[in-house]
Amino acid sequence: MRAAAIAQPNIALIKYWGKRDVVRNLPAVGSISITLRDLFTEMRVQLDGALTDDQLTVNGEPDTGLLPRLSVCLDRVLGQDRDPACIESHCNFPIAAGLASSASAFAALTIAAAAAADRSLETSELASLAGRASGSAARSLYGGFVELENRADDIAVRTLRAPAEWPLTVIIAITASEAKAVGSTEAMEMSRKTSPFYSSWIEQQPHDLATARDAIRQKDFAKLAAVSEHNCLKMHSIMWASRPPVVYWNSATMACLGTVRDLQAQGLGVFFTMDAGPQVKAVCLPDHAAQVSEALAGTVGVVDLMESGLGEAARRITTP
Ligand code: DP6
What we know:
This protein is of the alpha+beta class. It is built from 8 helices and 16 strands. Helix 1 crosses helix 2. The longest helix is centred in the middle third of the chain and has 21 residues. The site of ligand DP6 has 14 residues, from helix 4.
């Protein structure tokens, strides 16, 4: 009745923003992401009939903030008549700061919970369950370049390319480490209900997905860079134009965009993307990573840098 799993966060290049079904947490659009290698969340789940309630520690400290969402996820995987769970989470990067910590958390929890109850589920079933908890979590069940497609009544997720086939490097410029003020779930709904750009976003997404899919198939970095930056800026434009506006960027976010533009002008293979937070993820060719890292480290307002290659799917691990 005890099991553990590890999952890496993923960074969307073609973004999921908006839901077509809030109750089932089904996305309004498909998305394409890259799974990281060096950032991780490890989840240990022990089902224990002697407990009265679920319990959670995050990096060794008791935590109640995320517990209700984790409990609902456990109910979905194991049924509501399950035993209470003792959950231990370990994460090596800032939580809730726009670094996809919920994606790795729910992907790892789904696998660990099923394993703790000795249930063997297909990866596609685990992805659907993780996606019900957090849309982006479904993609962390797969490694490398990952596409999430909308199907009639559910999602379908698959790897487009294994990480070893096109190894890119991601440099993450941390520009603020506190948790974000508005969560992505809430911000998405504000966008859907109030942003005048939302319907164009939905209309154009198939075109961006097709372009990115082609770029990944052809390993065309310039093509992937152009469509990823465009898609990211469109997503943020929707948020800026919603009422109330949602602006996740700070002045250092803008400064990092300037740094990436300068590096591109010098001929380096690098592009930016940002999610529901102020951090800038610079995706680059491995040969250019050192120069990208140095330039971002010297950008005003950058407080820390993290670097990662592309990684494998979430998986069960053995606990000591
Ligand atoms: C900007 O997966 O966190 O990172 O399904 O409401 O939990 P919920 O949303 P979440 O949203 C991710 C939004 C994004 C883009 C992306 O990862 O595709």
